[in-house]
Specification:
CATH architecture of the largest domain: 3-Layer(aba) Sandwich
Mean pLDDT: 95
CATH topology of the largest domain: Rossmann fold
Number of strands: 10
Distance between the termini: 42 Å
Strand content: 5-15%
Low-confidence stretches: 316-320
């Protein structure tokens, strides 16, 4: 056990995944405040401890929801970022002159449009003082299943060994087991690229294609994630665990939201159609950055190229 003995005060920024993760922390004795801009959702949750987007799941009494960001941050030992990935920079840019006492934990998966950055790179630009206490959580974790109490496994990645162990000891001893790793690059690429591979796999399933040039689509997707990640400093081994293979296979098996979006692409829809539907497909916003990074690194990325050309028929590759 580390030097941190007491239960933690945790501030979570996010919606469905934020509330589900808050329950993981609360079951381990921590006091959690969730910042969410929807006043009605917060009011209803504080009365019933059921979040609208997680119906049927009564969450811990140790969780309080608030629309006041400063109230959520006040006294927080740990800040948890569980927002939509493309909103990440704006949310943390807004937080000036404040740092949590012990840790910043990212749960968001993706690559930033326009910069092609991972979460750690965004944090490094906006809050370099957070990097020593920064960690990223990556694995196959569906919010509704986590809220129902199902057990799961994830990587907890940090360049600081002490930070990784802190998160593992204080947030990885309940329904979710955490595996510490120093490979932040691999964990974040795994989480983001997985969504692209899931969409590509669903497209192929819709079209009745299970192999490309004799190689199984699942095997190709796993190799492609590792190839792109390795080109930018990740360890290939990371993609063989929760952050890559497990997340990819679990998302396909359970037909995740990104899988359903990929199926729609297979039926002939484009990114514009999916955007118009109002459903958030994180993989959709990761396609262009992933393809751009692959091209710059001269990585052969067949599935990424196929899904890019389908979603964005007139696409121009974004510069790195």
């Amino acid at each position: 056990m580390s030097q941190f003995k007491e239960n933690q005060n945790v501030a979570v920024i996010g919606g469905i995944w934020g509330f589900a993760w808050a329950d993981v922390a609360a079951e381990q004795g921590h006091k959690v405040k969730v910042f969410n801009r929807n006043y009605q959702d917060c009011s209803d949750f504080n009365l019933t401890h059921v979040y609208r987007r997680l119906p049927g799941h009564r969450l811990s009494e140790n969780i309080k929801a608030t629309t006041n960001r400063d109230e959520a941050l006040d006294g927080a030992d740990v800040l948890v970022l569980a927002t939509r990935f493309q909103n990440l920079r704006g949310l943390i840019k807004d937080i000036q002159g404040w740092s949590p006492k012990k840790g910043v934990l990212n749960l968001s998966k993706g690559l930033e449009l326009g910069t092609n950055f991972r979460a750690q790179q965004i944090v490094g630009e906006e809050h370099p003082e957070w990097l020593d206490i920064y960690g990223t959580w990556s694995g196959f974790n569906i919010a509704s299943k986590i809220a129902s109490g199902e057990r799961a496994e994830a990587h907890i990645a940090s360049t600081s060994h002490e930070t990784a162990i802190f998160f593992e000891e204080y947030f990885g001893r309940g329904r979710v087991s955490l595996i510490p790793t120093p490979d932040v690059i691999g964990s974040e690429f795994g989480g983001g690229l997985k969504n692209v591979m899931v969409m590509a796999k669903a497209m192929m399933d819709c079209l009745g294609i299970d192999k490309i040039k004799g190689e199984d689509i699942m095997d190709l997707g796993e190799r492609e994630m590792a190839d792109i990640g390795e080109a930018y400093g990740a360890s290939r081994e990371t993609f063989k665990g929760p952050s890559g293979r497990d997340d990819f296979r679990g998302s396909v098996k359970h037909k995740s939201r990104n899988y359903l979006g990929g199926w729609r692409l297979g039926e002939g829809e484009t990114a514009s159609d999916l955007e118009f539907s109002g459903v958030t497909y994180e993989g959709l916003h990761t396609i262009k950055p992933a393809f751009a990074l692959a091209k710059v690194a001269c990585v052969k990325a067949q599935l990424t190229e196929i899904v890019n050309n389908t979603a964005y028929p007139q696409a121009k590759i974004l510069p790195v």
